[in-house]
Structures are given as structure tokens and as C-alpha cells.
Amino acid sequence: MILENKWIVLEDKVVFGDLILENGRIKELHKKEPRQDLPVEYVMPGFIDLHIHGSNGFDAMDPETDAVEKMALSLVKEGTTAFLPTTMTQTKENIDRALSNIADYVLNQNPNAAVVLGVHLEGPFIHKGAAGAQPLNCIIEANTTLFDHFQKVSGNQIRKVSIAPDIEGAMSLIEHLKETGVVASIAHTKANYDTVVKAIKAGATSLTHTYNAMTPLHHRDVGVVGAALLHDELNAELIYDLIHVSMPAAKILIKAKGVEGVSLITDSMRAKYMTPGIYDLGGQSVHIQNNEARLADGTLAGSILKMNDGVKNLIKTLQLSPSMASVLASLNPAKQLKLDHLMGSIEVGKLANLVILNQDYDVVHTIINGKVVL
């Protein structure tokens, strides 16, 4: 397959030319003089969503065995070519069922759908004082034995765990996650700065939906947000729907950490691609109105953000270049999972997981393993 006369978004620049794909990989890149007589189309590396609960009426926690597949099929519409279906704080039985379903699907994935790279376990090891939309009655202390059980049920598919470092047992679990090659991500926490530093030393390398459900920056204790700004060891997730995080806050985050320190996520729930109304999230009713997802008390409950809209927001409100936005949406997530040798940027030899966008950054086509799936 040849993608002709495209603006090809590389890690550090955008070039005009042709991209040749063969056997599911990027075979050649040929630069040439730009054509002004053609509509502008960008080729970006496919987006990788590290934190997503649901889409198109389906959720990773659903009991139906095909829920994750149906999620994955919908995600190609926004240019997402790979993702981590994300569980939430629930009973052990419900988490077991979700992990088992995902484990089964991973063994026989639909080639026309976004690729499941593993599982993001969000909770149940979080702080009750920063639960957000996570059910309070299912929150428990950090437990290495229980995590190992979850990992076994998942078929060793858990790649990332969101955990509060200030709860009982957290540091031991963070150390265990590091030892077993799982990303420990600080989340839903009331921790002070010193506790975050301890978590970093124990092995934490990520921050879940930065600014949300964590201690804010304060001049006497800079809290979790301040630790994120100061410590390069932490890669910061960002829900950039202009609802969860304001433009100035996102600008501060990227200015402090650089584009290499932030990963774009959606944290979307099942109502994405659905009409406004009331939807379930972990047994709680979420009200969808004005592109916002909130519990009845007004608490934000995930988003309905699409990855290409997040990229569009980065470019149009923060004036990031397409290359910079691509680093946040593709390369940094791939690096976090240690998969950047295979995906996350456009390089000869890497998998042909790509998205073609028009000049308004709307999705024209999505390509997975060299196959056009949208």
C-alpha cells in the first residue's frame, strides 16, 4: 500500500511525501516537494489510549464477553489503534470477571479493531477521600496478594495500576509492581509531597489524570500536582477535553514537564458516541449533557472525549505542533509500555498503525497493521 502526497508527522517535524507499507510494517518513506493543488491530509502514528473505560455503549467492566471487542471496534473512528481497557474500583468478583473477559479477548482479537495492549487496573487500591466517581464501598487497602490474583486472572495482561500511595500497603505494592514490570501510577490520593517522593523511590513512574482526584499545588506543601511538575520520573496523564483541565493548567503542565513528560488520554466512559442521557458507570448513574459526564452531585465521571479531539485541542488551544501533539498521543504512551520499538512514531520498520487526518484533524482513515479499518 502507498499513502501518496501526505503530510507525514514525524517525531520532530512534518514532511511531505509518500509512505510505503508492506506486510503490516512501514517499509519506506519518500520525501518530495509539497503539492499545493491537493487537500491537506496528515498521516500520524495511530493514537494509543492508556486510560479508557468505555465507548459506544460498552464498558470494560461489562459482564458481556464481547464488550471490549465492541469498544475496540468503535475506537478506530477516532484514530486510536491501540489501548488499555481500564477497569474501575468494584467488587473482587466483578473485577475478576472483567479481567477474565479481557484475557480471553486478547487471545483472539478482531483485526479490524483497535489492539488491546493489556489492562489498566484503576483501583480498588485508592484513597476514600479522593474517590471521584469510584464507588466508596469497594475501595480497599493495597494488597500484593490480591494484585497477584488479579494478574493471574488477567492472563498476565495488567500493564498499569492506578494506586494511592498514601493508603496502607501502597509502598509495598508499588515496589512489587516495579519488580514485575507493571507501571505504577499515582491516583485518587490525598498524599502530600513527601509521600509522592517515597512512591517515586519505590517505583512509581506515572500520574493518573493529572490535576483530578489529587492534592493540588500549595505553597507550603506542593502536593501531588507539585510533585508531578518537579519530578521527571512521573509521566503525567492528561484528559484534554477542556473540562477536566483548563487550558492554562494544561499549558503549565506541558511547560514544566515538556512534551516528553505528558500522555494524552480520554478516560472516556460508555456514553462516548451515544446521545445525551443517563448511563451506568460502575453501578452509578452518570448524566451526559453539554459534552460532560457527571454524577448526580456534579462530580466528574470520566469523559466522552475522542482522541483526535484531544489532539485537536492540543494543537488549536496550546499551539502545539502536530509533531508535539503526536508525541503526547502516541509516542509517550508507547514508551510507557516499552513498546516504542514497535509503535508510537512513524519510522521504517515499525508497525503500520496509522491515522490519516484532514486539515481540521478529523479522522479520514485508520490503518492497523497495514490494513485500512476505517
Strand and helix layout:
Blueprint: E1 2-9, E2 14-22, E3 25-31, E4 41-45, E5 47-52, E6 54-55, E7 58-59, H1 67-75, E8 80-87, H2 92-106, E9 115-116, E10 119-122, H3 144-153, E11 158-163, H4 170-179, E12 183-186, H5 193-202, E13 206-207, H6 223-230, E14 235-239, H7 247-257, E15 262-265, E16 277-281, E17 284-289, E18 292-294, H8 307-318, H9 322-336, E19 354-358, E20 363-368, E21 371-372
Parallel strand pairs: 1-4, 5-8, 8-9, 8-10, 10-11, 11-12, 12-13, 13-14, 14-15
Antiparallel strand pairs: 1-2, 2-3, 4-19, 6-7, 16-17, 17-18, 19-20, 20-21
Helix pairs in contact: 5-6, 8-9
InterPro entries: Amidohydro-rel, GlcNAc_6-P_deAcase, Metal-dep_hydrolase_composite, Metal_Hydrolase
Keywords: Carbohydrate metabolism, Hydrolase, Metal-binding
Domain Amidohydrolase-related: 42-373
Give an account of the 3D structure.
The protein is an alpha/beta fold and 374 residues long. It has a single domain (46-342), classed as Metal-dependent hydrolases (TIM Barrel, Alpha-Beta Barrel), CATH 3.20.20. 27% of the residues lie in helices and 27% in strands. It is built from nine helices and 21 strands. It has helices at 67-75, 92-106, 144-153, 170-179, 193-202, 223-230, 247-257, 307-318, 322-336, and strands spanning 2-9, 14-22, 25-31, 41-45, 47-52, 54-55, 58-59, 80-87, 115-116, 119-122, 158-163, 183-186, 206-207, 235-239, 262-265, 277-281, 284-289, 292-294, 354-358, 363-368, 371-372. Strands 5, 8, 9, 10, 11, 12, 13, 14 and 15 form a nine-stranded parallel beta sheet that branches. Helix 5 (193-202) crosses helix 6 and helix 8 packs across helix 9 (322-336). The longest helix has 15 residues, at 92-106. The protein is globular and about 60 Å long.
